[in-house]
Amino acid sequence: MDRLFPIDTMETTCQDCYKCLRQCPLKAIRIEDGHAKITPDLCVACGICVQVCPVQAKKIRLDLGRARHLLDQEAEVYVSLAPSWAGEYPGLKAEQMICALKRLGFAGVSETALGAQEVSAAVAKMLNRNGLYISSACPSTVRLVRKYLHDYAANITAVHSPVMAHSKLLRQHFGDAIRIVFIGPCIAKKTEADEHRDLLDIALTFEELNDWFRQMKLDPYTMTPDKNDRFVPFSAEEGALYPVEGGMITTIQALGAKDTVRYVAVSGIDNICKTLKGLEETSLQHPVFVEALGCEGGCIGGPCAKASGALLGKRILVEDHAIIPPLPVVREHTLDITETFTPAPAAPPAPDPALVRDALRRIGKRLPEDELNCSGCGYNTCREFAAALVRGTAEETMCVSHMRALAQKKANALLRSMPSGVVIVDAAMHIVECNERFARMFGPETTEIYETCPGLKGCSLAKIIDFTDMFRTALKFDQEIHYDHFRYKNRLLNITVFSLDPHQVVGAVILDVTRQEGLRDQIAQQAQEVIRRNISTVQEIACRLGEHMADTEILLRSIAEGYACDSGRLAGKPKEKER
Ligand code: SF4
Ligand code: SF4
Ligand code: SF4
């Protein structure tokens, strides 16, 4: 296989937000080196991850170059045009679309709906025994059933998908030497083309077609078609209803399937799973046909359909384009479109529960109440995430609450190790965080409170110190304020108050220099340097605590090492390297 999987992640663009993982109904995304990568064997090419990625880091393989190259070859190339085109290009006449496509170099344009009609005719005849029948029309659904609902793989109707049936039909009409390019809203068709290269050469999306039109400065709406600009070998009728939910069912009913058949239309991967999982086929007292489409609303809601425009509007445009012949419709199909579908289980086996428990412990989930199931990691539950850790498809740093707790612990440890008193306060002059050294600076009562309420969170600063004015000023003017030898009771303090979040949060680093007063000149410069370092650390801590960070440990460790030296210097000891 010389083609890459149709969806890939641009690692340099990926922001590690895990939104794609959260939304992927099958968790077919693994996190590797911090980036969300698709596991092709688990993926059904539904395209949800492409649609939800906020920075467009999920890219659909572009096959435009391949299609253009095909047109440069000797063989005639035909378009298999998905019936959803009518909803994508509102107001465009079929003849104009055909004319524009032929200008690109195609020998002719045919409707995939012709293949759909072949499929419906075959399926209508099949529905004659009680039991479950799942449509084979959507390649994403077929992948889903074979991989994840494999007990029902044999229930997929044993016929090609419409595009495969159409490819056979075109080859029957125009000869085996022709080449075929499908154009539609579907990513899964690219996987279908990759797997059936003998029938379908390339699948393009409407987005790729629009790019092509742009590159060629072709506006299909301005085309003036002639009498030869018609669908070949003939126009489709009811098959054009396939891209809307329930459309295939309408065609099967029109073809006179038995009255005893029960029909269910379901769209969206999650909904298909909910509809089928756990179903006992023996409980069905009728032939039950499930029209299952991977995209919600059907192909008109496909991943490469225009995001703008209500589905209802597109549905009406598609329905208006379809022609329902007088009932019952009689179709003689002359093609062999038989295809059998076998199970192809993809979901890995559940990991050993003991290993899952270990993994849970590693991310700080020791008790059931620790399991927040917040989905911050992208998985629905902490246990699913832990199972992914065991499988090696996730990384511990993905658990936001774990990383937060870790960062908090380390920040606290760092605050404790700092040689200065540190306090962070909000706009209401309530303490957000402080270290023990700060509490000890301001009396035994404050120290006592600190012991029962570490960090003094929520305490009023004004009840601890009487020089809150400098904090208010720093807040109000978003300024840094510095006092050298600020006299507080019988002590001398070097104080720097600085902004952490403009007008919202300020921090202060307070160094008691009373003991060093005798060595004032020698020590002043060193003290100032320590304060500077402390400020940047507090800023770093305040900023990093609010983020998901992977390098907290390295950062904090390196800063902490720096403090070991600073403490020594202030105590008059030379720095290691100065010895
Ligand atoms: S949605 Fe996925 S691919 Fe996009 S930025 Fe987030 S993690 Fe990366
Ligand atoms: S295409 Fe669908 S199944 Fe595949 S990774 Fe994306 S969301 Fe998951
Ligand atoms: S519903 Fe249609 S567009 Fe969506 S995956 Fe299936 S065939 Fe493709």
Can you lay out the helices and strands and say which pair or pack?
Layout: E1 7-9, H1 19-23, E2 29-32, E3 35-38, H2 48-52, E4 58-60, H3 64-72, E5 77-81, H4 85-88, H5 94-103, E6 108-111, H6 112-126, E7 131-134, H7 139-148, H8 162-174, E8 179-184, H9 188-195, E9 202-205, H10 206-215, H11 247-254, E10 262-267, H12 269-276, E11 287-293, H13 311-321, H14 353-362, H15 382-391, H16 400-417, E12 421-426, E13 431-434, H17 436-441, H18 444-452, H19 469-477, E14 481-488, E15 491-501, E16 505-512, H20 520-545, H21 552-570
Parallel strand pairs: 5-6, 5-8, 7-11, 8-9, 10-11
Antiparallel strand pairs: 1-4, 2-3, 12-13, 12-16, 14-15, 15-16
One iron/sulfur cluster (SF4) binds next to helix 2.
The global form is elongated
- Assembly type of the chains comes to single chain
| Strand arrangement across the biggest beta sheet | 13-12-16-15-14
Give the helix proportion (percent range): 25-40%
Distance between the termini: 65 Å
Identify every distinct bound molecule in the structure, by name, code or SMILES. iron/sulfur cluster
* Main β-sheet description: 5 strands, antiparallel
Mean pLDDT: 89
Number of helices: 21
Task: Give the amount of beta strand, in percent.
Answer: 15-25%
Helix/strand-derived category reads: alpha/beta
**What is the count of structural domains?**
4
- Unreliable sequence segments: 547-579
Number of strands: 16
Rg (C-alpha, Å): 34 Å
Molecular structure report:
- By secondary structure, this protein is an alpha/beta fold.
- Helix content is 39%, strand content 15%.
- It contains 21 helices and 16 strands.
- It has helices at residues 19-23, 48-52, 64-72, 85-88, 94-103, 112-126, 139-148, 162-174, 188-195, 206-215, 247-254, 269-276, 311-321, 353-362, 382-391, 400-417, 436-441, 444-452, 469-477, 520-545, 552-570, and strands spanning 7-9, 29-32, 35-38, 58-60, 77-81, 108-111, 131-134, 179-184, 202-205, 262-267, 287-293, 421-426, 431-434, 481-488, 491-501, 505-512.
- Helix 12 (269-276) links the parallel strand 10 (262-267) and strand 11 (287-293).
- The two termini are 65 Å apart.
- The chain binds iron/sulfur cluster (3 copies).
- One iron/sulfur cluster (SF4) binds next to helix 7.
